[in-house]
């Protein structure tokens, strides 16, 4: 491998060294979770970004089909690029050109070496594109650009700015990648190049920890690669509950709308936690979930605090119809208050039954698909490995919770709205007419 590491941040170099040492010692690469824990990072998205950057720079190769699929590359081709000045990612400033220094960058994907130069970024109008104040952008010299490309744009009296460019009728729109900033419209724009690489500012230790940065990295990773797909984002399944509220395809869309000054998320209707677990695990946000269903909340307490104990008890159970039916009947008696279980047994029985059934949990029926031994083994291993960050779940009514958190960001995912005269649904349980807490949910009261 080349000894020239100028294009790596301090953290990227540390991660690369850790991977190399781990492989030398164990014969296999570490998992993303092991990297996250070793460096005490708050979110998996940060690990993904570092690994993707190392792969783009040809320091490593990654096999996405296996969990320990990272290999260290032997050689890397580099080139020298001049840094000729500063560019604003904000209000335009006079375009100044002077050679400050040269930097060494990965040459992969670049041709005609003399066609590139670099600029130091000042400002934060492009943070949603992962370009932060103090970064260096590598520019390919060209006078034309496609809609949506990030360009060095010269406007007015030789003023330069870094923006995404769009041609609109008889004018150009220079669009910042920051929701707090407005676009610039001009009839005449001179393009002096297109951004082809971003080099993170080593001295700025807080850039990679911003919510805007984490959102960008995560959303880029889950964006659908199928141009014919009707879904903008891929399904995200991080909850250990088999049917986590059906929100797994909505994760990307919800995170898109999350304000970038969010510090803590309060969820009055936690349920299966598809969205909330992603906010905690991928973005490193503190999440407090609430639900009125006490049996569910009891399960979450053990899942969050003692996942390995849950795993141990679930491992003792067999995924077969006889065991399933026995547990289902016990849970029905618990629901009818005929018997009482200790909290651990109740949590084990609940998640066993819920994850192996069709229909409404312990009022449903066994699924031959989920009674498969290999599938069951994978399911309980997910329960064992569940390692959320800054997540807790408590049992409470939404009315009390909203009053309790007047200044926090609320993510509200209430029960489905069902007409009062509907014979198809009562509560959440189809065709069962079982009066649970979802019956007659006051949607209007929540709205007001």
Automatic annotation (TrEMBL):
GO terms for biological process: DNA repair; DNA replication; DNA restriction-modification system; methylation; negative regulation of DNA-templated transcription; proteolysis; SOS response. It is an enzyme of class 2 (transferase). It comes from the Bacteria. Residues 82-196 form the Peptidase S24/S26A/S26B/S26C domain. CDD domains: S24_LexA-like (cd06529). It catalyses: a 2'-deoxyadenosine in DNA + S-adenosyl-L-methionine = an N(6)-methyl-2'-deoxyadenosine in DNA + S-adenosyl-L-homocysteine + H(+). This is site-specific DNA-methyltransferase (adenine-specific).
């Amino acid at each position: 491998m080349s000894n020239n590491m100028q294009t790596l941040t301090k953290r990227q170099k540390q991660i690369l060294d850790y991977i190399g040492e781990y492989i030398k010692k164990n014969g296999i690469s570490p998992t993303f979770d092991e990297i996250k824990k070793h460096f005490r990072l708050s979110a998996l998205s940060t690990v993904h970004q570092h690994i993707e950057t190392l792969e783009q720079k040809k320091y490593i190769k990654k096999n996405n089909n296996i969990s320990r699929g990272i290999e260290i590359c032997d050689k890397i081709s580099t080139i020298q690029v001049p840094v000729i000045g500063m560019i604003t990612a904000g209000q335009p400033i006079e375009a100044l050109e002077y050679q400050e220094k040269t930097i060494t960058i990965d040459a992969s994907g670049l041709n005609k070496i003399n066609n590139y130069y670099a600029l130091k970024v000042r400002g934060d109008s492009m943070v949603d594109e992962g370009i932060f104040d103090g970064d260096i952008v590598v520019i390919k010299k060209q006078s034309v650009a496609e809609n949506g490309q990030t360009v060095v744009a010269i406007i007015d009296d030789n003023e330069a700015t870094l923006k995404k460019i769009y041609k609109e009728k008889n004018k150009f729109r220079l669009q910042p990648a920051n929701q707090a900033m407005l676009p610039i419209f001009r009839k005449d724009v001179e393009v002096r190049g297109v951004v082809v690489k971003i080099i993170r500012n080593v001295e700025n230790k807080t850039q990679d920890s911003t919510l805007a940065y984490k959102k960008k990295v995560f959303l880029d990773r889950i964006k659908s690669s199928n141009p014919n797909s009707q879904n903008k984002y891929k399904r995200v399944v991080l909850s250990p509950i088999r049917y986590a509220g059906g929100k797994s395809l909505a994760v990307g869309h919800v995170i898109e709308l999350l304000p970038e000054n969010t510090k803590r998320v309060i969820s009055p209707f936690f349920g299966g936690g598809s969205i909330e677990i992603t906010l905690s695990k991928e973005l490193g946000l503190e999440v407090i979930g609430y639900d009125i269903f006490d049996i569910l909340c009891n399960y979450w307490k053990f899942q969050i605090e003692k996942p390995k104990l849950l795993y141990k008890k679930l491992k003792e159970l067999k995924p077969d119809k006889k065991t399933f039916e026995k547990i289902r009947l016990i849970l029905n008696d618990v629901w009818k208050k005929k018997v009482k279980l200790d909290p651990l047994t109740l949590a084990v029985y609940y998640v066993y039954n819920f994850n192996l059934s069709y229909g409404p949990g312990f009022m449903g029926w066994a699924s031959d698909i989920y009674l498969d031994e290999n599938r069951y083994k994978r399911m309980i291993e997910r329960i064992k490995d569940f390692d959320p960050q800054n997540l807790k779940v408590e049992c409470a009514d939404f009315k009390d919770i909203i009053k309790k958190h007047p200044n926090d960001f609320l993510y509200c995912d209430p029960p489905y709205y069902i007409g009062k005269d509907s014979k198809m649904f009562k509560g959440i349980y189809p065709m069962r007419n079982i009066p649970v807490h979802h019956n007659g949910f006051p949607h209007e009261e929540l709205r007001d």
